Amino acid sequence: MDTKQLETILALFEKSTVSEMELESETFKLKLKRNTEIHEVPVKPTIAQAPQPTTVVDTAHWVKAPLVGTYYHSANPDAKPYVEVGQSVKEGQVICLIEAMKVMNEIKADRSGVVQEIKAINGKMVEYNQALVRIGDAP
Amino acid sequence: MDTKQLETILALFEKSTVSEMELESETFKLKLKRNTEIHEVPVKPTIAQAPQPTTVVDTAHWVKAPLVGTYYHSANPDAKPYVEVGQSVKEGQVICLIEAMKVMNEIKADRSGVVQEIKAINGKMVEYNQALVRIGDAP
Amino acid sequence: MIQKILIANRGEIAVRIIRACKDLGIQTVAIYSTADQSALHVQLADEAVCVGEANSKDSYLNVNNILSAALLTHADAIHPGFGFLAENASFARLAQACGLIFIGPNPEIIDLMGNKINARIAMHKAGVPLIPGSFEAIPSLEEGLKTAQEIGYPIILKAAAGGGGRGIRIILDEVAFRQAYPVLKQEAKNYFNDDALYMEKLFTSAKHIEVQILGDQFGNVIHLYERDCSFQRRHQKMIEEAPCHLLNETQRKALCEDALKAAKAVGYDSVGTIEFLMDENFNYYFMEMNTRIQVEHPVTEMITGVDIVKEQIRSADKQKLSYQQNDIKILGHALECRIIAEDYRHDFKPSIGKISFYHAPGGKDIRVDSALYTNYELSPFYDSMMAKIISFGPSRLHAIKRMRSALEETIIEGVENNLEFCYFTLFNPQFVAGRYTTDFANAWIKELNERESTLS
Amino acid sequence: MIQKILIANRGEIAVRIIRACKDLGIQTVAIYSTADQSALHVQLADEAVCVGEANSKDSYLNVNNILSAALLTHADAIHPGFGFLAENASFARLAQACGLIFIGPNPEIIDLMGNKINARIAMHKAGVPLIPGSFEAIPSLEEGLKTAQEIGYPIILKAAAGGGGRGIRIILDEVAFRQAYPVLKQEAKNYFNDDALYMEKLFTSAKHIEVQILGDQFGNVIHLYERDCSFQRRHQKMIEEAPCHLLNETQRKALCEDALKAAKAVGYDSVGTIEFLMDENFNYYFMEMNTRIQVEHPVTEMITGVDIVKEQIRSADKQKLSYQQNDIKILGHALECRIIAEDYRHDFKPSIGKISFYHAPGGKDIRVDSALYTNYELSPFYDSMMAKIISFGPSRLHAIKRMRSALEETIIEGVENNLEFCYFTLFNPQFVAGRYTTDFANAWIKELNERESTLS
Question: Which residues, in sequence order, are CB contacts of B35 under 8 Å at separation 6+?
């Protein structure tokens, strides 16, 4: 089956009030369920299956704000940012500051790796649990 | 199967009051469910499919009340009921009365056959479209 | 004492009547068509009887089945709601002949007020100002032309027995009059079996003001002040309010007293409404009388605290009104938005289908009258009004603000609806000022649609 | 002028406050925990800030994050609602130190009324009748025994700094007193760092009556009459009403004037409640003061028309009250049922899960305050109250009947709830008579549960 077809089927399911759907054809088997956890169904071996692309297990993750406050990417307005995209960081290294109630809180990398993306904006508020900086294996 | 076909099936399911539907054809198998938990059904092998069982078409149906009124099973309290279960009737034969606004309306069988069941109660109100008498091929 | 009422209606007004009956300890019988098996009024009533197929003429207008249902469920009375059989004097008489109480005025009054020429004569006798026009039926084309000349074009030519938008022509000049007169006369004869025509001056821009009346069978008649129903599209009201913001106390008093005069002149003995047109100089003219409960009655209930439906049932039950005129005070201001399944961007095309999600607004000073629920299937057979949202406030501006936040809270998914249209309207400066007349809605809709096609 | 308020709460009271702010043209900032991302208050507020994990202590009690959120969103004021930080004087002071307006009374009053001995002394000085008991902290075991002897057992021994059901012992006789006194003293020292104890006579069967107070910062204090909150299980109110049906005008006047006296004595400058116990002879005694908006405030709003939350915001904003005492009239009777996700058949065990279907009641004289919607996931972390249904009527019996039909209309599927329990209660003869006291609910629950196991 192609993903276009899957997209169409999913859209139909979305629009319907159906809560569960199982669909099986000669080339595929599909099971859809709403609002509950999905039960894994073994995929029937289809003859002469195309080789599956090897999925890269990406351990990259976001460092999230542990408190509400103002995000600063550098120690002071004149200083260079703690980290920039593409830069390597070590676990425990300060990656930004969050100021709350006039106190500067240092936020540290919780793993070593490479900075892949920075989502927080210098000088703006971040809420609890907001994604700040993504650190992964590669840029 | 094509998604157009699926769309049609889903629309039919949506409009129905059916809560679960299983559909199997030579090329696909579909299972739909609304708002209840799913019961696992073993997947039948699709190769060399068995011929479909011939379903018996039961043409029995209910004669329904064409108006609101009081149902009488006989012409008067002393008379025998027009019809009883197991009795044969001919199309056009009077099977009961419905009194409305002091007028007695004769209700007639709309097919020939055998009275299988009588649901209305003598002397009680029937509403529009209420099932009165079921006539079928056999008792 | 009435013990059981059959409600010869559906939708939110049937639900409204059931609620009043529950308060009064009266049993209820709902009627329904085959399309309405899952309707809310069927679920809330004590009993329900199917009376016919989906099409109204086979069910909600099926007089025989409705009367049979009332008699066989041992109801004492029939409440017709609005629309359907509510202003059908023959139905009222038939119900009475069957020993049932018809919850509405004496059928004589329905007949009298149903014939627009007779109504005008009665109101004229009572000393209530009429819309300038022909007093009695127009005797001939030439006489008609003379009258039209006197009152000035444009005029509306109307069949005395007409109603519901039928048998009406807007006439702009003498040529048009000469053309339309014989045609409409023939039409009136064909449709209503009565070729009497009359004319009224056309007010293209006026306030539509109506006064709520309560009467009983002991000669007591009181008013519950006025409503402003000028926000209309093709004579369909969409937003109503009470009281009319523009009237001062002297004007209000004169208007309400004239309405009382009108009601008393015909011996009015139930709930009803006297409709007036008011021109830019605050001159008001009798338009017509509605001899039934109206869609917009909740705005009056909000500002007075009176339960109009309960009073209507009481008076039909030969009880005295619970109020005297000086018990009635205006406690604030109320608005009603009719939430309708139609698309203002496409000429208010009605929408049907399943309501996949419904969330009603709540909190202080918000009332919702509706027969909607999540997964309700909106049927093409009936009116597309889904809910009435009513807001109250100590002032008109408070009521408007409260309505805005109620509309923000309301969610209706699955069908097109006018929530957004109502919301936009509540920010229109002319609406907010209260200075809108009957031609306002159309112009505003046009403006909104034009804006849709531009960015700014 | 307050332009933006951060609402340091969740659920229906957060929604209630947002509605008041919208009426006043004030911007709102909601706060939420990671469990409340889809909560209604988050959707209705103009802005929303996540302040911590699901557990209240990490989010709705997280003072630093809440204050940061207020400052960084440029709010002028914080509304604490009820529960959480509503009666926390340190929080109020901290907010003020940050330049924020705390929407509640002066923190001095929160402190004064929070210490129960000091509150008693203040009330005694003001001439408000107190529950018989020790006047100041009990100096010693022997003195305590003497006082207990004087007022008569049973008594309640309480820690002055206690609250929320902690630091309280019911004492039936001298032996129990000798045993409990040193233990509770130690407990009080450990928990509250204050070992002062006092005692009050225990009323096992009394009316719990409370008077609603409004004050401003200009010395104006008025009352909005009383509520009867005697229907309680383990000090949890379940059904409240206003006014108290059993008081005559003389008794009502005395009670409300004593409440005013109490509020004025402490210079009360916000919305609050004076709670009284009333014995079978209609003698009433000051119990405590709540220095916040209360769950059951809507019943008072229904009978007076006053928007209490708006007045609370106005007075925090240094505006004068919109009302004077003689503007306040009792317009009818109101009831509130708290609809809670708990199962009365299983010792009111809380229920959690997805609300698979929710249908709110509607129509005239019904108000619904709720944060529920279809598909809302009821979380185990917070209070299990899902909705407040409030009914109004010209008389108490009307309000009861209206509530019955509202409960009949309400549908909540997916979690156990007390709709049925409330409905049954509205038919209990003692409840209908209004002659129930604080011990009634327990006996009634027992009776209902016993009935469950029999057929008749």
Answer: A17, A19, B19, D356
Measuring CA to CA, how many Å separate B118 from each of B92, B113, B115, B139, C159?
A: 17, 14, 8, 12, 53
The closest of D313, D305, D322 to D242, measured between CA atoms, is: D305
Measured in degrees and rounded to the nearest 5, phi and psi for residue C379 equal -90, 150
For domain B61-136, the question of CATH label 2.40.50.100 is answered with yes
Domain with CATH 2.40.50.100 in chain B: 61-136
Partner A contacted by C356 (CB < 8 A): yes
User: How much is the average pLDDT of C269-276?
Assistant: 98
D435 is catalytic: no
The answer to whether the Cβ–Cβ distance between C50 and B14 falls below 8 Å is no
ipTM at complex level? 0.83
Q: Which two tokens stand for residue D93?
A: 């002071």
**Subunit partners of chain B (3 or more CB pairs within 8 A):** A, C
Q: What is the pLDDT of residues D329-360, one digit of tens each?
A: 999 999 999 999 999 989 999 999 999 999 99
Decide if A33 contacts A94 (C-beta within 8 A). no
DSSP type of residue C85 = T
Cβ distance C270 to C222 under 8 Å? no
Residues of B with CB below 8 A from C34's CB? 128-129
pLDDT-derived band of residue A33, with 50, 70 and 90 as boundaries? low
The pLDDT, as a whole number, for residue B20 is: 67
Q: Give contacts of A26 with chain B, Cβ < 8 Å.
A: 27-28, 46
C-alpha distance from D393 to closest chain C C-alpha (Å): 9
Check residue D310 and give its pLDDT.
Answer: 98
> Cβ–Cβ of A68/D73 closer than 8 Å?
no
Apex C364 CA angle, C359 and C368, nearest 5: 40
Q: Residue ranges of the alpha helices (H) in chain A?
A: 3-15
Lowest mean pLDDT among A76-80, C166-170, C193-197: C166-170
- Our measurement of the distance from residue D396's CA atom to the centroid of its chain's CA atoms, rounded to an integer in Å, reads 22
CB D104 within 8 A of CB D316: yes
Among A residues 11-40, those touching chain C with beta carbons less than 8 Å apart: 17
Do the Cβ atoms of D64 and A67 come within 8 Å? Answer: yes
Global pTM value: 0.88
Q: What is the pLDDT of residue C161?
A: 86
Contacting residues of C for D362, CB less than 8 Å apart? 360, 367-370
> How far is residue C244's CA from residue C277's CA, in Å, rounded to a whole number?
12
In this prediction, residue C35 has a pLDDT band, given cuts at 50, 70 and 90, of very high
- Given a cut of 70, whether residue A37 has pLDDT beyond it is no
Task: Give D255: exposed, middle or buried? Use CB within 10 Å, 0-12, 13-18, 19+.
Answer: buried
Nearest CB to C373: which of D44, D359, D404?
A: D359
Q: Does C375 touch chain A (CB under 8 A)?
A: yes
Partners of residue C67 in chain B, C-beta under 8 Å:
101
CB D251 within 8 A of CB D258: no
Question: Which amino acid, residue D121?
Answer: I
pLDDT at C135: 85
Higher pLDDT, A138 or D10: D10
List the alpha helices (DSSP H) in D87-173.
89-97, 107-114, 116-126, 141-151
Neighbours, chain A (3 or more CB pairs < 8 A):
B, C, D
Residue A39 predicted with pLDDT over 70: no
Instruction: Please give the Cα distance from A56 to C124 (Å, whole number).
Output: 89
With contact defined as beta carbons under 8 Å apart, do D18 and D7 qualify?
A: yes
Average pLDDT (C96-120) is: 95
CA–CA separation, D126 and D309 (whole Å): 27
Nearest by Cα to D230 from D251, D250, D204, D248:
D204
Cα–Cα distance, C332 to C398 (Å, whole number): 9
